[in-house]
């Protein structure tokens, strides 16, 4: 018990502070994680989900809020299975890239439909299936990549002493991003029209694709020491060894 008390006291002493984020080997993975959470929300998922009933009604599908929720739930469940299987086969980065690509095309197609609905209704009538197909592909793509992976990588990128702090801050900003996207959806519709809003989200998806290609570090199959070393931690391996020794001493 005495040794355990000492270990817990040492853990409290080693607990990270905000100033520790200024260290480059903490700031780099933290910035990457924040970027993932930013794109997770600003690709428009909150606006799409919270306004699903309005979207269906605007294209002629008179679905109740309950039915819209059921459709979204089924699609999300269907996306969960391949996501879990592929995450440790293809890696996180590939899934993020694929997710971004499919979201670009689905939101581009959704915007195209609404553009035709405003400027050439006869064409829109001929492709009345396009909005529903685009939404299904969009939700599938999001839930395979940008839905779960930012949370997964947040648990992989940080050393134990700073993980709680980083994830707490990232979670707070994630909900702020969600709130901003949701409350700005209707004002943006008035300003840019429906097609403009979806093309704007599609443009952000392009940025998320570039971010995934050039910034995201693949964590699949890598140990915490290797991840720390990639970001320049001076003692990634030593930190893990010290923890192992401390735990062994207690037991």
TrEMBL record:
<keyword id="KW-0812">Transmembrane</keyword>
<dbReference type="Pfam" id="PF00083">
    <property type="entry name" value="Sugar_tr"/>
</dbReference>
<feature type="transmembrane region" description="Helical">
    <location>
        <begin position="165"/>
        <end position="185"/>
    </location>
</feature>
<dbReference type="GO" id="GO:0016020">
    <property type="term" value="C:membrane"/>
</dbReference>
<keyword id="KW-1133">Transmembrane helix</keyword>
<keyword id="KW-0472">Membrane</keyword>
<dbReference type="GO" id="GO:0022857">
    <property type="term" value="F:transmembrane transporter activity"/>
</dbReference>
<dbReference type="InterPro" id="IPR036259">
    <property type="entry name" value="MFS_trans_sf"/>
</dbReference>
<dbReference type="InterPro" id="IPR020846">
    <property type="entry name" value="MFS_dom"/>
</dbReference>
<feature type="transmembrane region" description="Helical">
    <location>
        <begin position="68"/>
        <end position="87"/>
    </location>
</feature>
<feature type="transmembrane region" description="Helical">
    <location>
        <begin position="197"/>
        <end position="217"/>
    </location>
</feature>
<feature type="domain" description="Major facilitator superfamily (MFS) profile">
    <location>
        <begin position="1"/>
        <end position="220"/>
    </location>
</feature>
<feature type="transmembrane region" description="Helical">
    <location>
        <begin position="128"/>
        <end position="153"/>
    </location>
</feature>
<dbReference type="InterPro" id="IPR003663">
    <property type="entry name" value="Sugar/inositol_transpt"/>
</dbReference>
<dbReference type="InterPro" id="IPR005828">
    <property type="entry name" value="MFS_sugar_transport-like"/>
</dbReference>
<protein>
    <submittedName>
        <fullName>Facilitated trehalose transporter Tret1-2-like protein</fullName>
    </submittedName>
</protein>
<feature type="transmembrane region" description="Helical">
    <location>
        <begin position="36"/>
        <end position="56"/>
    </location>
</feature>
<dbReference type="InterPro" id="IPR050549">
    <property type="entry name" value="MFS_Trehalose_Transporter"/>
</dbReference>
<feature type="transmembrane region" description="Helical">
    <location>
        <begin position="94"/>
        <end position="116"/>
    </location>
</feature>
């Amino acid at each position: 018990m005495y040794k355990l008390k000492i270990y817990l006291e040492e853990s409290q002493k080693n607990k990270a502070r905000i100033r520790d984020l200024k260290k480059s080997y903490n700031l780099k993975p933290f910035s990457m994680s924040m970027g993932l959470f930013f794109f997770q929300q600003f690709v428009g998922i909150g606006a799409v989900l919270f306004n699903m009933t309005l979207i269906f009604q605007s294209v002629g599908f008179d679905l109740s809020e309950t039915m819209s929720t059921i459709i979204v739930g089924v699609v999300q469940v269907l996306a969960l299975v391949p996501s879990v299987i592929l995450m440790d086969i293809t890696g996180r980065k590939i899934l993020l890239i694929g997710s971004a690509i499919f979201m670009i095309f689905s939101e581009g197609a959704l915007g195209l439909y609404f553009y035709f609905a405003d400027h050439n209704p006869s064409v829109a009538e001929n492709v009345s299936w396009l909005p529903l197909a685009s939404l299904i592909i969009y939700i599938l793509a999001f839930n395979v990549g940008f839905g779960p992976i930012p949370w997964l990588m947040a648990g992989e990128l940080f050393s134990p002493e700073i993980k709680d702090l980083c994830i707490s801050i990232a979670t707070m900003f994630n909900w702020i991003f969600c709130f901003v996207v949701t409350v700005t959806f209707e004002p943006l519709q008035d300003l840019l029209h429906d097609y403009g809003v979806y093309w704007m989200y599609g443009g952000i998806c392009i940025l998320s694709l570039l971010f995934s290609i050039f910034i995201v570090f693949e964590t699949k199959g890598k140990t915490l020491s290797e991840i720390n070393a990639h970001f320049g931690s001076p003692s990634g391996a030593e930190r893990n060894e010290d923890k192992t020794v401390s735990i062994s001493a207690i037991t």
